[in-house]
């Protein structure tokens, strides 16, 4: 029997420390500290009052396999996920070849299982080749062994309203969710940075907030008429929060995510012209960042998703216009949430469990993730040292790429251990 005792952990960072006894992939008992006597072969994790949470679930990860294994693989990305406290990740479809058919999604799913560090759920493309012209075979992907439950053209917007309408209609029949990368392409031709005074002064072509907001509003209306569930990727503007509040108030079944970088970084970063800060959607103004934090705290934005986007040196260490958008996120997400939400008192650790584990698991319909910390539940867990700090070094992260915007920053909260179905996948910064 595979047995682990987590000794002296505080569930959700609340109450007195308890012992959590894990056996055969399940939380067997939770008892007073010192009360659990482990078997001789049991592995003991001394928690010393650290915070125990359900394992994190990331609805938005780019693992780059197949096609760009020079930047990330399912192996390296799974390691980054485990070290970041994740027990499930959704791998976006913008690979090469695109995950728009059963063969590719099954490959990603199978590779994830072989690596075994985190549950890798492939996201299926909404349109063939992400071209926005023709619907992909969503049904075949949903019914494949990969059991695809999330569909997205992320990186591209499903801009054609008729295609988006059809995708939403099919999604209800299939019981899956469409996640939209909300960006009206006609409004972002040549766009380089958040449209505003700073971009204008520094000479960047503006990327208007309305490009995001207009698609979010349109799709909420389409979802309402289709009776569909809709998920909005990487919300970045104040106006999008207004639209989401309006739609949720009407009972439209929409959920939304925000990235760690949109909770922390602003367009002040543009002054350096360093493409490590180039991301889609772009870093916005300080007022937008403030609004992201409040919307996440009050639930208008449902969850945090990393948009972990590894890129090769040559695609980042170049002029701004030529650089690819995106930044690493899996190993820094918890710390950024601690810095932006926990430290200022906007979320407690129970709130962190909600936005990083429970809500994303609910949105994607994962029955064994984001579960309560209780006896009989699957042991998908993360132990967090809330008082420890660490310094981010891109070269030391598990990803193949190193494009972190937090290089050299000292951040709070460290993942001490991650357990996937009762097996230790990371411990003290090391795999397994
Ligand atoms: O910054 C981004 N990078 N945003 C996206 O939507 C796609 C992603 C990527 O694939 O690199």
TrEMBL record:
One of its GO terms (cellular component) is cytoplasm. GO terms for biological process: 'de novo' UMP biosynthetic process; purine nucleobase catabolic process. The keyword Membrane does not apply. It is an enzyme of class 3 (hydrolase). Keywords: Hydrolase, Metal-binding, Pyrimidine biosynthesis, Zinc. It catalyses: (S)-dihydroorotate + H2O = N-carbamoyl-L-aspartate + H(+). Binds 2 Zn(2+) ions per subunit. SUPFAM superfamilies: Composite domain of metallo-dependent hydrolases, Metallo-dependent hydrolases. The keyword Hydrolase applies. Substrate binds at residues 62-64, 94, 280, 311, 325-326. It comes from the Bacteria. Its EC number is 3.5.2.3. Catalyzes the reversible cyclization of carbamoyl aspartate to dihydroorotate. This is Dihydroorotase. It comes from Prauserella flavalba. The gene is pyrC.
């Amino acid at each position: 029997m595979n047995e682990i005792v987590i000794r002296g952990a505080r569930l959700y960072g609340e109450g007195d420390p308890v012992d959590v006894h894990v056996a055969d992939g399940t939380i067997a008992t939770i008892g007073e500290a010192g009360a659990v006597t482990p078997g001789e072969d049991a592995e003991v994790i001394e928690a010393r009052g650290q915070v125990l949470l359900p394992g994190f679930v990331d609805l938005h990860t780019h693992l780059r396999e197949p096609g760009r294994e020079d930047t990330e693989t399912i192996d390296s990305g799974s390691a980054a996920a485990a070290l970041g406290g994740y027990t499930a990740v959704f791998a976006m479809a913008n690979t090469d070849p695109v995950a728009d058919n059963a063969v590719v999604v099954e490959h990603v799913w199978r590779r994830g299982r072989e690596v075994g560090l985190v549950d890798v759920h492939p996201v299926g493309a909404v349109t063939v080749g992400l071209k926005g012209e023709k619907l992909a075979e969503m049904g075949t992907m949903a019914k494949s062994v990969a059991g695809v439950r999330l569909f997205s053209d992320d990186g591209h917007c499903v801009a054609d309203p008729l295609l988006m309408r059809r995708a939403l209609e099919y999604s209800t029949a299939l019981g899956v969710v469409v996640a939209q990368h909300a960006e009206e392409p006609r409004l972002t031709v040549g766009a380089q940075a958040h449209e505003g005074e700073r971009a204008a002064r520094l000479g960047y072509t503006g990327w208007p907030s309305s490009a995001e907001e207009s698609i979010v509003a349109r799709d909420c209306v389409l979802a309402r008429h289709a009776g569909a569930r809709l998920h909005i990727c990487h919300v970045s503007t104040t106006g999008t929060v207004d639209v989401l509040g309006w739609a949720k108030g009407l009972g439209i079944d929409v959920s939304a995510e925000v990235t760690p970088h949109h909770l922390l970084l602003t367009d002040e970063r543009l002054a350096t012209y360093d493409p490590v800060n180039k991301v889609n959607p772009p870093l916005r103004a300080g007022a937008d960042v403030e609004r992201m934090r409040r919307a996440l705290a009050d639930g208008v934005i449902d969850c945090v998703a990393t948009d972990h986007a590894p890129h090769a040196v040559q695609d980042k260490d170049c002029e701004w216009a030529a650089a690819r958008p995106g930044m690493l996120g899996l190993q820094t997400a918890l710390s950024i949430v601690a810095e932006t939400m926990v430290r200022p008192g906007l979320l407690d650790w129970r709130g962190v469990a909600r936005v990083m584990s429970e809500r994303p698991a609910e949105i994607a319909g994962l029955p064994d993730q984001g579960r309560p910390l209780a006896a009989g539940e699957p042991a998908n867990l993360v132990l967090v040292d809330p008082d420890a700090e660490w310094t981010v070094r891109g070269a030391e992260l598990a990803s193949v790429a190193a494009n972190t915007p937090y290089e050299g920053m000292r951040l709070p909260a460290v993942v001490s251990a991650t357990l996937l179905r009762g097996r230790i996948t990371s411990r003290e910064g090391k795999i397994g």
